[in-house]
Structure formats: C-alpha cells, structure tokens
Predict the 3D structure of the following.
Amino acid sequence: MKAVSKIYASLVFLFLYAPIIVLIVFSFNASSSTSVFAGFSLQWYKSLLEDKATLRALYNTLILAVSSSVIATVIGTAAAVGIDKYKKGFARSGIMAVTNIPMMNPEIVTGISMMLLFVFVGRLVNIDSVLGFGTLLIAHVTFNLPYIVLTVLPKLRQTDRNLAEAAQDLGCKPVTAFFKVVLPSIMPGIITGMIMAFTLSLDDFIISYFTGGPGFQTLPIAIFSMTKKRVKPDMYALSALIFLSILLLLILYNAAQVKSEKRAKGK
C-alpha cells in the first residue's frame, strides 16, 4: 500500500507541476516554438527587460498586491481578534458566515457587483472615470480579508488567554499587552495570511477585469490582451521568474518558522 500511495502522490505532483516545468524549460528556448526546444538561450529574458509595457504592468501588479495584502492583513487581524472575543453562538456563526461569503461567492459575481457599486457611487459624486487603482485596491482588499481572518483565528485559539491577563496584572495596558504578548504568538498566522493575500492579488484576473480602468493595467489583464494575437515568449520568462520568486519566498518563510519553533522548544 505504501508503494501505491507513493506512486499516486508522485502522479498528482507531476500533473500539478508538469506545466510549470515545461514553461520554465521553454523560457530558455532559442526559438519561439512551444513544441520544439531549439537550444539554450537567454534571449527571452533580455526581451522581457526591454518590454516597457510588460514591466509597467508588472510594477502595477506588485504595487497593488503589496498594498492590498498589507491593508487586508491589518484589517483582517483586527477583525479576527474581534471575532475571537465572541462566545460560540448565533452572533459568532453569523459573522463567520458573512466573512466567508467573498470566498464562496463566484469571482465573476463579486467582480460585476463591485463594478456596479463603484459606477453607482461615481455617478453620485459626479465622477465619470471612477474605475482605477482605488477601485482595484478596494476590491482586492475585500476578497483577501476572509483568508487573513481564517489564518489568524486558529492562532488566536491556540494562544493562552491567561498570558495577556498576566501581562495586564503586571502593569501593561490592554493595548500594550496585545502587542507584546498576543501579537508575537499569532505572527506566524499573520504572515501566512499576508503571503496568501499577496499571491491571490498577484494573479487575480476576473475581479480586476471588472473593477479596473484603462489607466491602470495589471499583468494578468495585459497577458489576456496578448492572447487575442499571440502570447510573446518573453511571458514564459516572466512567469518563470514570478514562480521562482514565490517559491523562494515560501522556502525562506518555512525555514524561518522551523528555526523559531526550535528556539521555542529549546527555551
């Protein structure tokens, strides 16, 4: 049974990562073919650095992803702390149900509804071109919030509530006790949620397509506009760089988390 389970797991990972491996390999292809590898070359990485429109879209995407993930992390952490104060009952269940709606709701419904809301508000304040970076930021923060809440809440439940009370008994104010005692214990959940929010914002297309304007174009929308003609091979290089960057970020975070756990056990 162990051999069968290992083979099954290997096939699943192969199915998941084979397209990414093919993409990385062909990002070094000397030709623009997607089926024949003509030799090793870095020409598509050089072409990427010379493509100002793509780099601008990448810059916009990174600014949006960083901004939305940071704002969503602050609001989501505060919301998780507030939800954790509720005792189990109808109020807590209702709040959690409302929190989970952006996750369960289809993205196209969320995108269209937010677009209609932004356009309606824009007409109320007599703004014609309301869609842009601001509306994209609000939309990304909205769909990132549930993921932050759901990653921070388990850490709050694992935290000993007596620690904050003990800190207050020793003279700390409630806010100081939270930042010195509670916050460090839930920091792994906060960082995990922020990384998840960053990656979700980085590759979002549907909601960004409906809530964005012509003056601010993200990378997924720029790539989608290329599919009407032909995706340039330098997109393979860009996708490979993004994948490797996220992979490196996760490896560094997991390594830091393992070290912190070992230090905690040693103490």
In short: The mean pLDDT is 84. The CA atoms of residues 74 and 161 lie 21 Å apart. DSSP finds eleven helices and no strands in the chain. The radius of gyration is 23 Å.
